[in-house]
Design goal:
Helix content is about 35%, strand content about 20%. α1 crosses α6 and α7 packs across α9.
Length: about 325
Amino acid sequence: MPVSETVLSILWRRTMKKILVTGGTVFVSRYIAEYYVAAGYEVHVLNRNTRSQAKGVTLIQADRNMLGDKLRDQHFDLVIDTGYTCTDVNHLLDALGSFENYIFVSSSAVYPEYSKQPFTEAAPLNANVFWGKYGTDKIEAETVLAQRFPEAYILRPPYLYGQGNNVYREAFVFDCALGGRKFYLPKDGEMGLQFFHVHDLCRFIDILVERKPDQHIFNVGNKDKVSIREWVRICYEAAGSRAEFVNVYDDMDQRNYFSFYDYEYYLDVTKQQELLNTTKPLEEGLKEAFDWYRENRDEVNKKPYMEFIDKNLK
């Protein structure tokens, strides 16, 4: 039976007090840090202090690969690691003094594109031609963590979205909507995407720490895929507009004019749903993302999709 968030909050306040978040300044790790600050926990963030810090956190200023004794005398009830490589994981484990729970935010990029879909947690891991080194680095990081601390939980999300997303995905569509532009859609627009809101990621972490399930690797994500046409339509509506489409059938790399690779994949999230069976509707999550973006446009790393469209597709 899924545990209500109210019950989890009460239990956590009795048992969970001090949290370490690696990073804490950009999108996923920042959202996680702010989520636990808002929940009343003592949140420490580990980063080099080259960006603004979230309100309410305690900064541990250091390069995670040159930590020395900065963590040696501290105890953390929970470590949430958004690292990328086995070196990241090894150095953090070497530096930590003591801790109770460890959550590693990995990626669905660990699954090779040729495997049977939907990918289950038991599917073989290997290089994916679309994700390349990012995916293989995550595989190596997972392997090291599982060997050194088998009690850790490893999460494999699809595309994460929500407030604070600095990747030019939904923000690109918002810009098109705000500019009154038609949207240039790859092929027939039926390619499927799977998303997971960062708030739901945090909710699931709560459940893992409270319930401590026997399974330690989870695919996480919304239950259903959404076509790129439908996703764009929802983004336009979030921005108060209506999408008009131009289908692009030219034999060109769609990453020149669209936010995603020409690659449809799908995760089996049955195991997650046994513990967390509701996720934020895309309409609600993308409206929240738009409201954040409207006030924080300079926080997103933009790409010249529009310039390419205006030069090559119009």
